[in-house]
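The instructor's notes for this session suggest beginning with a concrete chain rather than abstract definitions. Hand out the sequence below and ask the class to guess, before any prediction is shown, which regions might be ordered.
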Amino acid sequence: MCRLKILVVEYEKKKALDIKKLLQNLGHFVSEITEDEEGAVKKMEEINPNLVLFNISLSGKKDDVKLADVIMNDYQVPVLSLTERYSIIKKIERKLTESLNYINEPVAEQDLQIAIEMAVDKHQTKKQFQEQQQNFMAILKSMGCAVMLTDTCGCIHLMNPIAEELTGWTQEEAVTKNLAEILSLVDKDTGILRKDLATQVIQTGVVLNLPETLTLIAKDHTEIQIGGNIAPIRDDDGSLIGAVVVFQDITQRKQTEAQLVRNAFYDALTGLPNRVLFLERLSQVFERRKRRNNENYAVLFLDVDGFKGINDTFGHSAGDNFLIEIARRLESCLRSADTVARFGCDEFAILIEDIKDLSDTINVAQRIQEALKSPIYIEEYKISISASIGIALSCSNYEQPESLLRDADMAMYDAKQQGKARYVVFNSQNLYQMNRRKK
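After discussion, reveal the predicted structure:
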C-alpha cells in the first residue's frame, strides 16, 4: 500500500505520540495531532487525509460519536477506532449510521498495518458500490420505459420515475407491497385480473413477454395499454434473487395500428367496409358454402343514378354528404350479419348471408329502393334519388367468389339500361346481352 495521510485524534498526549511514531515507522505521513473536535474538523479540511485514526470514548464532554459520523459521512473518510474492549465499539455503533473499523489496544505494528489496509479497502469498496448504485439509478431514471424490481416473494424494492408516472404510485408508497397490488393488470380480451405474472417468472426462471392485450389500471383508475416483459434476476452464483418488470405505454401505438387497419379495410368518407374487406368476407362465405351446400347467400351491386350531375351542380362537399346519407340508408335496410361496402365514388356492394331463396334477396332490394325514395336536401334544393341494383345468387355453380361480384355488376348494368331505379337478377341472358354490347 502507498504512503497514506493519516490524521490521529487522541486526547492523551503520550498515547498520541506513540501512535504517531508507530505510523511513521510504517511509512505513513501523520498530520499534527489534535486534542479537540474543532481542531479535528479544521485539520480534516486542511490536509484531506486518507484515514482518521480515532480513539473514540463514550465518556466525558467530547462528542466523539458525532465527530466520527461527520468524518465518515460528510467528509467520506474512513475511521479506524482504537479500543480496549469490543463491547465499547458495539455501544458506539448503535449511535452511528454505519459500522466502524476498529483495532484492539495495545497495538502491534503489523496488526495496525493490516487494520489500516482493511479500513481503506473497505472504504474504497463502499465508494465504488455507491458510485455503481448512483450510475444504476441514473440509468433507471433516464430510461424511457418503466422499471420495477421485486424480491423472490414478488414484493417491490425499487421503481423508476416512469413506473411511478404510469402506475400513479410513488416508490415510497409501493416499496414492500406486492407487485400485483401496484401493477394491476387486466386482460381486456377476457376481463381477468392477472396477478400471477411475477410469481410465474420467479417459479420458472424464464423471461415472460407481457401479452399486448393487457391493460394497466393505474392508482387513479385510468386505463393504459402496456407492453413489455418480466425477467428473472440472478446473482453471480446464478441463484434467483428477484424479478425485473420492464414495460411502456403502448396506447398511442395500438391506436395508430387500429387506425392503419381501419384505413386498410374501411372507406374514409362513409366508414363502410371497402372493396378489400368486402372481398375477404365474400371469400369466407364462399369457402363456407363449399363445406355446407345448404347455406345460400347473394351479392348486390348498387350504383346511384345521376350522381355525377349532383356532384357537378353542387360541388364535391355536397356530393360527399350525399354519399354519406346513402350509406346510412343502406345500412338501415340490412341485418347486422350482412355487409355493405363502398367500392368507389357512387358504387356500393352488399353481401346478404343466410337466405332461403331469391325472394329474401328481392325483399332487400325493394327495401333499399323504398329507403332511397325519400329526397335528400342540399341547401334549399330537394334532390330525388334512386339506384340501379344488380343481384347474383350463390346457387349458380361459381368457381371463384369474385365471379358473383362480376355477375352482380353485369345485372346492375342491365338495370341501368332498362331505365334505372330498378333491380335485375343475373342470369345467362345478362351475360349474353353483355357480350353483344362488347361486340
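Then share the key points. Residues 434-439 have pLDDT under 50 and may be disordered. DSSP finds 16 helices and 20 strands in the chain.
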